[in-house]
Design brief:
2 copies of one chain form a homodimer.
Chain A lengths: L1 E5 L8 H13 L5 E6 L1 H10 L7 E5 L10 H7 L4 H10 L5 E4 L3 H12 L9 E7 L5 E5 L9 H19 L5 E5 L10 H11 L5 E6 L11 E3 L2 H20 L5 H4 L8 E5 L5 E4 L5 H17 L1 H8 L3
Parallel strand pairs in A: 1-2, 1-4, 2-3, 4-11, 6-9, 7-8, 7-9
Antiparallel strand pairs in A: 5-6, 5-10, 10-11
Helix pairs in contact in A: 1-10, 3-5, 4-5, 6-7, 6-11
Chain lengths: 313, 313
């Protein structure tokens, strides 16, 4: 397996990316080949300095970097030799099986949508966040930011994308799907969720259990929770900030600890044809290592192939 | 001052309501007159049993009760002698200056909108939640449930309603108003927030500071945060459930403790002509006592008069 990694993306790159390789290699029994894309001189020096010299590591030179705040479409077009552009080129041409970056989120999305492309039948790809459950299990929330405005059918598709993600990557068989809403009964909600409910109910490809409310997010009610990207993004950032607050206040608790973004490291772009993982700008070594693990799971489970299969018809 | 209290509303009524009176009376230096609406025989027995016999307490007999899950409009129409119907009648006729209930939320809202009515110029009244800030201060989030779908002008009005609530009840001078959104810059967001931003920016009656994200909710960025009632309700219930989880896990922390709904006890219906406070179904004595305090502050600050004044033009 070949995984492409943008070594220049994120606030602490390339140092934390290099340390992430170290963590990954020291914990994986049969590591993938890691195509490390970035400034060759800088990377080789850092890799040597941190003694990350392994046959699995292949440095791919990228003389340009897309900054965290550059305009996504423009930067991708202008900087064809940037680590993100080269990563997508390698993914599109099959040189790598998955591509990871903690860099410019917009550029990663534009790259995923334009160079890898949405799977036929998927109207709107989505990004997903894990949701720690009080009982120790893990839920999935999507969309958490790609689609601020959605149509009912988008939510219905997110339900299927999320179900496949829950099954293939988190091993949740027949995941329970809930529609995030402001009431329990069918008919409750805003115009969007009222219209989405019957679509989800009639979708034979998912295990729909009805509406879930804000209070159910952390309970064992639904494994996959769907919403438009506006609400999802606010929930995600609010949860991250609560974790930060708890950390600052020296609250040590296993449940709250699971809100740490590092544990998963990144989100896949669900609904594009090949595995793409986008990391947090503040990604550290642990997050990079977990992003590689996530990409690996996406490749071995063939989640993209399964999505292609499910959306055929 | 005369405050009407629905003694029969809430999962633990009338016992917790009676205990709430006790708490309120034992902590208030010049208590209001409390018109306790409910089953006279039951209430008098309970009040005597708990030794809550004071000149300030006036029992008002209501032979009927609206159940927690009854259809709001139908129940209010059919049960004219219920504690909620009588409470609104007393409020409308001026016998009490404020009305409190932890009963059927729908019936409280219908009663507020139909017997008290929205203030002229207010398109959509809203309910508000307090948001504890990490620095110890308090923010306001609205709408948290009345309006699942909103127009841009609704959010603009919530900004003013929330500002007056923050000032009159929480003593926050010139409260900073933020538009809850998925990005910091103007132009970010969904269709609704993109259209609302310029309205808020051009509103001379508020102190608009721009967009706030999910991660800013608990920070000292904005005192008043506005959103439609869908996102607001999910945030509110999610925060409540996190508090519950923390409590169950024996996490003792001053910041997390402030997520306890009891501390404020209820939400006003902002934008109706007289003070109406709606409590949580699970309200206990502490919550009832704090609802009375909230109603008292709403009366003394003349928040409804101030809203009427601000919406004149």
């Amino acid at each position: 397996m070949n995984i492409g990694i943008d070594m220049m993306g994120g606030d602490f790159a390339p140092l934390e990316a290099v340390k992430g390789l170290q963590t990954y290699l020291s914990t994986s029994s049969s590591p993938a080949n890691l195509f490390c894309i970035g400034n060759e001189v800088e990377l080789k020096m850092l890799l040597a300095h941190h003694r990350v010299v392994r046959a699995e590591i292949i440095v791919v030179h990228a003389p340009e970097v897309i900054g965290m705040h550059e305009h996504a479409t423009k930067a991708l077009k202008d900087k064809q030799r940037s680590s993100i552009a080269i990563g997508f080129h390698m993914l599109a041409s099959g040189k790598v099986d998955a591509f990871i970056s903690a860099g410019n989120t917009g550029a990663m999305l534009v790259g995923a949508l334009y160079s890898i492309k949405a799977i036929s039948g998927v109207h709107r790809p989505a990004i997903a966040s894990i949701v720690p459950k009080v009982n120790g299990s893990t839920g999935i929330l999507l969309d958490v930011g790609l689609n601020a405005d959605c149509k009912p059918e988008n939510l219905n598709q997110f339900a299927l994308l999320g179900s496949l993600y829950a099954k293939d990557v988190f091993g949740i068989e027949n995941p329970k799907v809930g529609l995030l809403n402001v009431g329990e009964e069918e008919g409750k909600g805003n115009v969007l969720t009222q219209a989405a409910y019957p679509l989800l109910k009639d979708n034979p490809a998912i295990n729909f259990i009805g509406n879930v409310e804000g209070r159910d997010l952390f309970l064992d009610k639904a494994d996959v929770m769907v919403c438009e990207g506006f609400t999802g993004n606010i929930i995600l950032k609010m949860a991250e900030s609560l974790y930060e607050a708890a950390k600052q206040r020296n609250i040590s608790d296993a449940f709250l600890h699971r809100f740490n973004y590092e544990n998963v490291g990144g989100t896949p772009v669900l609904g594009v044809a090949k595995p793409v993982v986008i990391g947090h700008g503040i990604s550290n070594a642990n997050a990079f290592s977990n992003m590689i693990n996530l990409a690996e799971k996406m490749v071995t489970s063939n989640i993209c192939g399964n999505i292609i299969e499910q959306f055929k018809s």
